[in-house]
Protein backbone atom coordinates (compact mmCIF):
# COMPACT_ATOMS: atom_id res chain seq x y z
CA UNK A 1 0.00 0.00 0.00
CA UNK A 2 1.35 3.40 -0.95
CA UNK A 3 2.52 5.57 1.98
CA UNK A 4 0.98 8.53 0.13
CA UNK A 5 -2.56 7.16 0.47
CA UNK A 6 -4.64 8.83 3.19
CA UNK A 7 -4.02 7.10 6.49
CA UNK A 8 -5.59 6.64 9.91
CA UNK A 9 -3.46 7.08 13.01
CA UNK A 10 -4.15 4.88 16.01
CA UNK A 11 -2.96 6.88 19.02
CA UNK A 12 -2.48 4.50 21.94
CA UNK A 13 -1.15 4.92 25.46
CA UNK A 14 1.06 1.85 25.06
CA UNK A 15 1.60 -0.55 22.20
CA UNK A 16 1.71 -3.47 22.21
CA UNK A 17 -0.16 -4.35 25.39
CA UNK A 18 -0.81 -7.98 26.23
CA UNK A 19 -4.28 -7.38 27.67
CA UNK A 20 -5.57 -5.31 24.71
CA UNK A 21 -6.06 -8.01 22.08
CA UNK A 22 -9.26 -6.28 20.92
CA UNK A 23 -7.22 -3.35 19.61
CA UNK A 24 -4.94 -5.65 17.61
CA UNK A 25 -7.98 -7.46 16.16
CA UNK A 26 -9.54 -4.13 15.18
CA UNK A 27 -6.37 -2.91 13.46
CA UNK A 28 -6.00 -6.19 11.59
CA UNK A 29 -9.61 -6.01 10.41
CA UNK A 30 -9.19 -2.45 9.18
CA UNK A 31 -5.99 -3.35 7.35
CA UNK A 32 -7.76 -6.33 5.77
CA UNK A 33 -10.47 -3.92 4.56
CA UNK A 34 -7.84 -1.77 2.84
CA UNK A 35 -7.16 0.98 5.38
CA UNK A 36 -3.64 2.34 5.73
CA UNK A 37 -2.98 2.38 9.46
CA UNK A 38 -0.12 3.92 11.42
CA UNK A 39 0.30 3.38 15.16
CA UNK A 40 1.58 6.12 17.48
CA UNK A 41 2.38 4.91 21.00
CA UNK A 42 2.79 7.37 23.87
CA UNK A 43 4.68 4.88 26.01
CA UNK A 44 7.15 2.11 25.16
CA UNK A 45 5.85 -1.33 26.01
CA UNK A 46 6.91 -2.78 29.37
CA UNK A 47 5.34 -6.20 28.79
CA UNK A 48 7.58 -9.02 27.57
CA UNK A 49 4.55 -11.11 26.55
CA UNK A 50 3.33 -10.83 22.96
CA UNK A 51 0.52 -12.44 21.01
CA UNK A 52 1.41 -14.04 17.66
CA UNK A 53 -1.23 -11.86 15.97
CA UNK A 54 1.10 -8.88 16.37
CA UNK A 55 3.30 -10.30 13.61
CA UNK A 56 0.38 -9.87 11.20
CA UNK A 57 0.01 -6.13 11.83
CA UNK A 58 1.50 -4.19 8.92
CA UNK A 59 1.17 -0.74 10.48
CA UNK A 60 4.44 0.96 11.38
CA UNK A 61 4.80 2.03 15.02
CA UNK A 62 6.14 5.43 16.06
CA UNK A 63 6.95 6.07 19.73
CA UNK A 64 6.26 9.65 20.79
CA UNK A 65 8.88 11.15 23.11
CA UNK A 66 8.02 12.44 26.57
CA UNK A 67 9.83 15.39 28.16
CA UNK A 68 12.39 14.14 30.66
CA UNK A 69 14.37 17.37 30.95
CA UNK A 70 13.73 21.00 30.04
CA UNK A 71 15.96 20.59 27.02
CA UNK A 72 13.50 18.06 25.62
CA UNK A 73 10.74 20.69 25.65
CA UNK A 74 12.85 23.14 23.67
CA UNK A 75 13.79 20.41 21.22
CA UNK A 76 10.09 19.67 20.72
CA UNK A 77 9.40 23.34 20.04
CA UNK A 78 12.30 23.54 17.58
CA UNK A 79 10.97 20.50 15.71
CA UNK A 80 7.48 22.03 15.66
CA UNK A 81 8.95 25.23 14.22
CA UNK A 82 10.80 23.25 11.55
CA UNK A 83 7.51 21.55 10.67
CA UNK A 84 5.77 24.90 10.28
CA UNK A 85 3.59 24.46 13.37
CA UNK A 86 4.78 27.40 15.46
CA UNK A 87 1.71 29.56 14.74
CA UNK A 88 -0.67 26.68 15.45
CA UNK A 89 1.08 25.92 18.74
CA UNK A 90 0.85 29.61 19.65
CA UNK A 91 -2.88 29.79 18.85
CA UNK A 92 -3.52 26.85 21.16
CA UNK A 93 -1.09 27.81 23.92
CA UNK A 94 -3.93 28.24 26.41
CA UNK A 95 -5.18 24.70 25.84
CA UNK A 96 -1.64 23.32 25.99
CA UNK A 97 -0.85 25.21 29.17
CA UNK A 98 -3.98 23.83 30.83
CA UNK A 99 -2.79 20.26 30.20
CA UNK A 100 -0.05 18.42 32.05
CA UNK A 101 3.49 18.95 30.78
CA UNK A 102 3.66 15.37 29.46
CA UNK A 103 0.37 15.64 27.57
CA UNK A 104 1.15 19.06 26.12
CA UNK A 105 4.62 18.17 24.87
CA UNK A 106 3.51 14.80 23.54
CA UNK A 107 0.69 16.55 21.65
CA UNK A 108 3.25 18.84 20.02
CA UNK A 109 5.50 15.87 19.24
CA UNK A 110 2.55 13.91 17.84
CA UNK A 111 1.51 16.82 15.64
CA UNK A 112 5.11 17.09 14.40
CA UNK A 113 5.25 13.34 13.71
CA UNK A 114 2.17 13.62 11.48
CA UNK A 115 3.89 15.96 9.05
CA UNK A 116 4.33 14.43 5.58
CA UNK A 117 2.49 11.26 6.74
CA UNK A 118 -0.83 12.11 5.02
CA UNK A 119 -2.76 11.24 8.17
CA UNK A 120 -6.44 12.08 7.65
CA UNK A 121 -7.91 10.90 10.95
CA UNK A 122 -6.88 9.86 14.47
CA UNK A 123 -8.58 7.14 16.47
CA UNK A 124 -7.86 6.47 20.14
CA UNK A 125 -8.86 3.71 22.55
CA UNK A 126 -9.88 4.85 26.05
CA UNK A 127 -11.13 8.38 26.72
CA UNK A 128 -8.27 9.18 29.05
CA UNK A 129 -4.70 10.43 28.57
CA UNK A 130 -4.19 9.25 25.00
CA UNK A 131 -7.40 11.02 23.93
CA UNK A 132 -6.20 14.17 25.70
CA UNK A 133 -3.01 14.08 23.61
CA UNK A 134 -4.94 13.39 20.40
CA UNK A 135 -7.39 16.22 21.11
CA UNK A 136 -4.55 18.71 21.58
CA UNK A 137 -2.75 17.41 18.48
CA UNK A 138 -6.01 17.84 16.57
CA UNK A 139 -6.21 21.49 17.62
CA UNK A 140 -2.66 22.04 16.34
CA UNK A 141 -2.99 20.14 13.04
CA UNK A 142 -6.67 20.30 12.19
CA UNK A 143 -6.72 16.50 11.82
CA UNK A 144 -10.00 15.19 13.29
CA UNK A 145 -9.95 12.65 16.11
CA UNK A 146 -12.31 10.04 17.47
CA UNK A 147 -12.16 7.71 20.45
CA UNK A 148 -13.61 4.52 21.86
CA UNK A 149 -14.81 4.71 25.48
CA UNK A 150 -14.63 1.42 27.36
CA UNK A 151 -15.12 1.30 31.17
CA UNK A 152 -12.30 2.54 33.41
CA UNK A 153 -12.28 5.72 31.32
CA UNK A 154 -15.99 6.28 32.03
CA UNK A 155 -16.78 4.80 35.44
CA UNK A 156 -13.64 5.22 37.54
CA UNK A 157 -13.87 7.80 40.31
CA UNK A 158 -10.92 9.69 38.78
CA UNK A 159 -12.85 10.55 35.59
CA UNK A 160 -13.52 14.29 35.42
CA UNK A 161 -16.87 15.28 33.95
CA UNK A 162 -15.66 18.46 32.28
CA UNK A 163 -12.71 16.73 30.64
CA UNK A 164 -14.89 13.96 29.20
CA UNK A 165 -17.54 16.46 28.09
CA UNK A 166 -14.98 18.48 26.12
CA UNK A 167 -13.67 15.34 24.42
CA UNK A 168 -17.17 14.27 23.42
CA UNK A 169 -17.94 17.71 22.01
CA UNK A 170 -14.68 18.22 20.12
CA UNK A 171 -14.33 14.72 18.68
CA UNK A 172 -15.35 14.07 15.09
CA UNK A 173 -17.29 11.21 16.69
CA UNK A 174 -17.03 8.93 19.70
CA UNK A 175 -17.95 5.30 20.09
CA UNK A 176 -18.52 3.02 23.03
CA UNK A 177 -18.75 -0.74 23.35
CA UNK A 178 -22.18 -1.45 24.85
CA UNK A 179 -25.73 -0.18 25.03
CA UNK A 180 -25.21 0.15 28.78
CA UNK A 181 -22.38 2.60 28.18
CA UNK A 182 -24.45 4.45 25.58
CA UNK A 183 -27.32 4.99 28.02
CA UNK A 184 -24.94 5.99 30.81
CA UNK A 185 -23.05 8.57 28.73
CA UNK A 186 -26.23 10.02 27.23
CA UNK A 187 -27.72 10.47 30.71
CA UNK A 188 -24.52 12.03 31.99
CA UNK A 189 -23.86 14.28 28.97
CA UNK A 190 -27.23 14.85 27.27
CA UNK A 191 -25.98 17.86 25.28
CA UNK A 192 -22.65 16.38 24.20
CA UNK A 193 -23.44 12.90 22.85
CA UNK A 194 -25.16 13.50 19.52
CA UNK A 195 -22.13 11.97 17.78
CA UNK A 196 -21.79 8.98 20.13
CA UNK A 197 -22.21 5.58 18.45
CA UNK A 198 -22.26 1.92 19.44
CA UNK A 199 -19.35 -0.12 18.06
CA UNK A 200 -18.80 -3.30 20.02
CA UNK A 201 -15.41 -4.93 20.52
CA UNK A 202 -15.06 -7.67 17.94
CA UNK A 203 -13.36 -11.02 17.47
CA UNK A 204 -11.66 -12.53 14.44
CA UNK A 205 -14.16 -15.39 14.44
CA UNK A 206 -11.99 -17.53 12.17
CA UNK A 207 -9.52 -17.74 15.07
CA UNK A 208 -12.18 -19.15 17.38
CA UNK A 209 -13.69 -22.26 15.77
CA UNK A 210 -16.86 -23.47 17.44
CA UNK A 211 -17.26 -26.89 19.02
CA UNK A 212 -20.24 -28.15 20.96
CA UNK A 213 -19.72 -28.84 24.65
CA UNK A 214 -18.72 -32.38 25.53
CA UNK A 215 -20.72 -34.49 27.98
CA UNK A 216 -19.73 -33.76 31.56
CA UNK A 217 -17.38 -36.18 33.29
CA UNK A 218 -16.96 -37.01 36.95
CA UNK A 219 -14.94 -33.83 37.55
CA UNK A 220 -16.37 -30.47 36.53
CA UNK A 221 -13.65 -28.47 34.73
CA UNK A 222 -14.06 -24.72 35.30
CA UNK A 223 -11.94 -21.99 33.71
CA UNK A 224 -11.60 -18.30 34.52
CA UNK A 225 -9.27 -15.74 32.96
CA UNK A 226 -8.38 -12.16 33.80
CA UNK A 227 -6.12 -9.83 35.70
CA UNK A 228 -6.11 -10.59 39.41
CA UNK A 229 -7.72 -7.32 40.43
CA UNK A 230 -10.88 -6.43 42.33
CA UNK A 231 -13.19 -5.83 39.36
CA UNK A 232 -12.61 -9.34 37.96
CA UNK A 233 -14.32 -10.81 41.03
CA UNK A 234 -12.12 -13.86 41.64
CA UNK A 235 -12.30 -13.13 45.38
CA UNK A 236 -15.96 -14.24 45.12
CA UNK A 237 -15.30 -17.23 42.86
CA UNK A 238 -13.09 -18.98 45.43
CA UNK A 239 -15.76 -19.20 48.18
CA UNK A 240 -18.22 -20.26 45.46
CA UNK A 241 -15.86 -23.14 44.67
CA UNK A 242 -15.71 -24.04 48.36
CA UNK A 243 -19.51 -24.10 48.49
CA UNK A 244 -19.66 -26.42 45.49
CA UNK A 245 -17.16 -28.78 47.08
CA UNK A 246 -19.20 -28.83 50.29
CA UNK A 247 -22.18 -29.87 48.18
CA UNK A 248 -20.26 -32.81 46.76
CA UNK A 249 -19.34 -31.33 43.36
CA UNK A 250 -15.98 -32.64 42.18
CA UNK A 251 -14.25 -29.83 40.39
CA UNK A 252 -11.02 -28.55 38.87
CA UNK A 253 -10.95 -24.75 38.77
CA UNK A 254 -8.12 -23.02 36.89
CA UNK A 255 -7.67 -19.25 36.93
CA UNK A 256 -5.29 -17.67 34.41
CA UNK A 257 -3.85 -14.21 34.96
CA UNK A 258 -1.62 -12.08 37.11
CA UNK A 259 -2.17 -9.01 39.23
CA UNK A 260 -1.98 -7.28 42.58
CA UNK A 261 -4.42 -9.69 44.27
CA UNK A 262 -2.34 -12.82 43.55
CA UNK A 263 -1.06 -13.23 47.12
CA UNK A 264 -4.49 -12.55 48.60
CA UNK A 265 -6.10 -15.16 46.35
CA UNK A 266 -3.38 -17.71 47.14
CA UNK A 267 -4.03 -17.14 50.86
CA UNK A 268 -7.78 -17.64 50.30
CA UNK A 269 -7.12 -20.90 48.49
CA UNK A 270 -5.26 -22.18 51.56
CA UNK A 271 -7.80 -20.78 54.03
CA UNK A 272 -10.69 -22.39 52.15
CA UNK A 273 -8.75 -25.65 51.74
CA UNK A 274 -8.99 -25.52 47.98
CA UNK A 275 -5.38 -26.34 47.14
CA UNK A 276 -6.25 -29.72 45.58
CA UNK A 277 -9.03 -28.23 43.47
CA UNK A 278 -7.97 -24.71 42.42
CA UNK A 279 -4.88 -23.55 40.55
CA UNK A 280 -3.73 -20.02 39.79
CA UNK A 281 -1.94 -20.48 36.49
CA UNK A 282 -0.29 -17.06 36.26
CA UNK A 283 0.05 -15.22 32.93
CA UNK A 284 -0.78 -17.29 29.88
CA UNK A 285 -0.22 -16.84 26.15
CA UNK A 286 -3.15 -16.65 23.76
CA UNK A 287 -2.51 -20.24 22.67
CA UNK A 288 -2.53 -21.38 26.30
CA UNK A 289 -5.81 -19.57 26.88
CA UNK A 290 -7.28 -21.35 23.86
CA UNK A 291 -6.16 -24.69 25.31
CA UNK A 292 -7.68 -23.79 28.68
CA UNK A 293 -11.01 -22.94 27.06
CA UNK A 294 -10.92 -26.07 24.92
CA UNK A 295 -10.55 -28.23 28.05
CA UNK A 296 -13.22 -26.41 30.10
CA UNK A 297 -16.79 -27.50 30.78
CA UNK A 298 -17.76 -24.05 32.07
CA UNK A 299 -16.20 -20.59 31.85
CA UNK A 300 -16.86 -18.12 34.68
CA UNK A 301 -16.44 -14.33 34.52
CA UNK A 302 -17.41 -13.24 38.08
CA UNK A 303 -17.07 -9.49 37.43
CA UNK A 304 -17.97 -6.85 40.03
CA UNK A 305 -17.91 -3.07 40.31
CA UNK A 306 -14.84 -2.02 42.29
CA UNK A 307 -14.87 0.28 45.30
CA UNK A 308 -13.39 3.01 43.06
CA UNK A 309 -16.14 2.60 40.47
CA UNK A 310 -13.93 0.62 38.12
CA UNK A 311 -15.69 -2.13 36.19
CA UNK A 312 -15.23 -4.33 33.16
CA UNK A 313 -16.83 -3.01 30.00
CA UNK A 314 -16.92 -6.35 28.20
CA UNK A 315 -14.29 -9.01 28.96
CA UNK A 316 -12.80 -10.11 25.65
CA UNK A 317 -12.12 -13.61 26.95
CA UNK A 318 -15.83 -13.99 27.80
CA UNK A 319 -16.62 -13.35 24.13
CA UNK A 320 -13.90 -15.82 23.13
CA UNK A 321 -15.31 -18.51 25.42
CA UNK A 322 -18.80 -18.02 24.03
CA UNK A 323 -17.48 -18.09 20.46
CA UNK A 324 -15.69 -21.38 21.02
CA UNK A 325 -18.73 -23.07 22.55
CA UNK A 326 -17.89 -23.07 26.26
CA UNK A 327 -21.04 -22.49 28.35
CA UNK A 328 -20.57 -19.35 30.45
CA UNK A 329 -21.59 -17.96 33.82
CA UNK A 330 -21.17 -14.23 34.41
CA UNK A 331 -22.64 -11.32 36.34
CA UNK A 332 -24.97 -8.42 35.63
CA UNK A 333 -22.24 -5.78 35.41
CA UNK A 334 -22.26 -2.97 32.79
CA UNK A 335 -22.77 -4.45 29.30
CA UNK A 336 -22.37 -8.13 30.16
CA UNK A 337 -26.15 -8.84 30.17
CA UNK A 338 -26.19 -7.80 26.49
CA UNK A 339 -24.14 -10.88 25.64
CA UNK A 340 -24.90 -13.31 28.49
CA UNK A 341 -28.66 -13.55 28.26
CA UNK A 342 -29.79 -15.58 31.22
CA UNK A 343 -30.94 -19.06 30.29
CA UNK A 344 -30.40 -18.48 26.57
CA UNK A 345 -26.73 -17.71 25.86
CA UNK A 346 -25.43 -18.43 29.36
CA UNK A 347 -26.27 -18.00 33.01
CA UNK A 348 -26.32 -14.53 34.55
CA UNK A 349 -26.12 -13.96 38.31
CA UNK A 350 -25.91 -10.93 40.58
CA UNK A 351 -22.38 -9.64 41.16
CA UNK A 352 -20.44 -10.02 44.40
CA UNK A 353 -22.29 -13.13 45.62
CA UNK A 354 -20.36 -16.42 45.98
CA UNK A 355 -23.64 -18.24 46.60
CA UNK A 356 -25.14 -16.88 43.37
CA UNK A 357 -22.02 -17.93 41.44
CA UNK A 358 -22.19 -21.44 42.90
CA UNK A 359 -25.88 -21.67 42.01
CA UNK A 360 -25.17 -20.47 38.46
CA UNK A 361 -22.44 -23.09 38.00
CA UNK A 362 -24.76 -25.79 39.33
CA UNK A 363 -27.49 -24.65 36.92
CA UNK A 364 -25.16 -24.84 33.92
CA UNK A 365 -23.86 -28.27 34.95
CA UNK A 366 -27.28 -29.74 35.71
CA UNK A 367 -28.48 -32.68 33.57
CA UNK A 368 -31.70 -30.73 33.08
CA UNK A 369 -29.85 -27.89 31.35
CA UNK A 370 -29.46 -28.11 27.57
CA UNK A 371 -25.83 -27.05 27.41
CA UNK A 372 -25.68 -27.58 23.64
CA UNK A 373 -28.56 -25.16 23.05
CA UNK A 374 -26.91 -22.55 25.28
CA UNK A 375 -23.63 -23.01 23.41
CA UNK A 376 -25.26 -22.69 19.97
CA UNK A 377 -27.22 -19.61 21.01
CA UNK A 378 -24.06 -17.99 22.34
CA UNK A 379 -22.12 -18.61 19.13
CA UNK A 380 -24.98 -17.22 17.05
CA UNK A 381 -25.06 -14.03 19.13
CA UNK A 382 -21.28 -13.57 18.85
CA UNK A 383 -21.45 -14.02 15.06
CA UNK A 384 -24.25 -11.47 14.84
CA UNK A 385 -22.92 -8.74 17.14
CA UNK A 386 -19.18 -9.25 17.68
CA UNK A 387 -17.65 -9.95 14.27
CA UNK A 388 -14.62 -7.66 14.17
CA UNK A 389 -14.86 -7.20 10.39
CA UNK A 390 -18.36 -5.74 10.72
CA UNK A 391 -17.28 -3.54 13.59
CA UNK A 392 -14.24 -2.31 11.68
CA UNK A 393 -16.48 -1.37 8.76
CA UNK A 394 -18.61 0.71 11.14
CA UNK A 395 -15.50 2.55 12.33
CA UNK A 396 -14.34 3.14 8.76
CA UNK A 397 -17.70 4.59 7.75
CA UNK A 398 -17.83 6.86 10.80
CA UNK A 399 -14.34 8.26 10.24
CA UNK A 400 -15.16 9.01 6.61
CA UNK A 401 -18.48 10.72 7.30
CA UNK A 402 -18.72 14.48 7.54
CA UNK A 403 -19.01 15.84 11.05
CA UNK A 404 -22.51 17.04 11.83
CA UNK A 405 -22.88 20.01 14.14
CA UNK A 406 -24.66 19.01 17.35
Approximate shape? elongated
Strand content: 15-25%
Structural class: alpha/beta
What CATH calls the topology of the largest domain is Rossmann fold
Overview features:
alpha/beta; 6-stranded parallel sheet; Rossmann fold; 41% helix; 2 domains; 7-stranded parallel sheet; 406 residues; 13 strands; 16 helices
Describe it for me?
This protein is of the alpha/beta class and 406 residues long. The protein has helices at residues 21-32, 70-82, 86-91, 93-98, 101-113, 129-141, 152-155, 161-170, 179-188, 234-246, 262-271, 286-295, 316-324, 354-364, 371-385, 388-400; strands at 7-14, 36-43, 61-63, 119-125, 145-149, 173-176, 196-198, 220-225, 251-256, 278-282, 298-301, 328-331, 347-349. The chain has 2 domains: 7-202 and 387-400, Glycogen Phosphorylase B (Rossmann fold), CATH 3.40.50; 206-385, Rossmann fold (3-Layer(aba) Sandwich). The chain is built from 16 helices and 13 strands. The strands form 2 sheets. A 7-stranded parallel beta sheet has the order 3-2-1-4-5-6-7, with helices on both faces. A 6-stranded parallel beta sheet has the order 10-9-8-11-12-13, with helices on both faces. α13 (316-324) packs across α15. It is elongated. The protein starts with 6 loop residues before the first strand and ends in a 6-residue tail after the last helix.
Amino acid sequence: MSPFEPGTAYVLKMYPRFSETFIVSEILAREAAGDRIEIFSLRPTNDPRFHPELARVQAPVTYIDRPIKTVALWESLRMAEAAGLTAAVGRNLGELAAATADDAVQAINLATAFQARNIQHMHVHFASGATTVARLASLITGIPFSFTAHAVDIFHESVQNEDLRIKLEQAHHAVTISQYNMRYLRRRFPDSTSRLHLVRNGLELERFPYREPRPLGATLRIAAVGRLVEKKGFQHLLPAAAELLDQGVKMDLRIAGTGIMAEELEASIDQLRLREHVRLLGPQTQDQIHELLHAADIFVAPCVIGADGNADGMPTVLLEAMATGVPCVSTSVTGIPEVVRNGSTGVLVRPGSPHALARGIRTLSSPAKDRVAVSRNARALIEEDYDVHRQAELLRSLSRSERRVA
